[in-house]
Structure formats: C-alpha cells, structure tokens
Amino acid sequence: MARQIQVNDGPDANPFAGCRTVVHSFGMVSEIFKASRFTRGNFLFPTYIEVTDQSVIRHKRSWFSHDEMSITINKVASVHIKTGVIWSEILIESTGGSDPVTSHGHTKADARRIRELIEAAQGNLGTPTGGGGKLNPP
C-alpha cells in the first residue's frame, strides 16, 4: 500500500504544525498527528495518531516492535482531552468496552483537531455517500 504525502505550502497551508495530510493510493485522505518528543515516552519513538474517515489509528514504535491500535469511527464512543500548560493527553473510548486509545504529548490545537475530525467523520456516516473518503478541511 503506497502512500503519497500531499504538501500544502501555499496560502492554504495547514495551520496545524504537527499534522500532515496523506493521500493513500486508493484515494482515501487521512491526517497524521505526531506527539512531541519532549514528553515522556516519546523521546526516541513518538506516538502518531492517524485519523481517516473510517478509523482512528495509534502508531507507537519501540526498539524491536511496532504497536498499532485502531478503532473504527462508528465504534468511537467519546473523545476525552486533558490539557496541561502546553501538552494534551487524548483518550478515545470505544463502544465495545475494549482498551481506549490513549496518547499524550500532542499540542492543544492538534487534540482539538483530532476531536473535530472524529466528530465530522461520525456526522458523515449518515450521509448517502458516507463521506466519500474526504475529511473536512480545517
């Protein structure tokens, strides 16, 4: 599965510094948010949260493994954001009762954007096109 990064450098550049937009080879668009390396557990291998119109995926690497945890958009029950002075912790709970997706070290703007994308994708589930593989622009 090839990925192609879409770069916005013009006047419509993405205001979220820790975010990048990815266009997959099959046309689905996702946004990826990187946790800060200055927070606990993210110094060598930062956590990434990827939000698509179909799922939320947390990518966490370590020395010898890669942990990937995903929840489909229709199974997301709530998004809890705990903010500190600079960084935010995100807790995404599922309706199935399994372990929630957690990530810390994101900026407040990134945490709010993740919540907005999830809410927008859940709102698009009821439309006849189902979102059409496009996330709502900021």
Secondary structure topology:
Elements: E1 3-6, E2 19-24, E3 29-34, E4 48-51, E5 55-61, E6 66-72, E7 76-83, E8 87-94, E9 101-107, H1 108-124
Antiparallel strand pairs: 1-2, 2-3, 3-4, 4-5, 5-6, 7-8, 8-9
The CATH architecture is Roll
- In the CATH scheme, the class would be Mainly Beta
Helix content: 10-25%
Major sheet attributes: 6 strands, antiparallel
CATH topology, anyone? PH-domain like
- Alpha plus pi helix count: 1
Question: What's the end-to-end separation, in Å?
Answer: 27 Å
Question: Could you tell me the radius of gyration in angstroms?
Answer: 15 Å
H/E topology pattern: EEEEEEEEEH
Strand order across the largest sheet: 1-2-3-4-5-6
Average pLDDT confidence is 81
Low-pLDDT runs of 5+ residues are 1-16
Which word captures the global form? globular
How many β strands by DSSP? Answer: 9
Brief rundown of the structure:
Helices cover 12% and strands 41% of the residues.
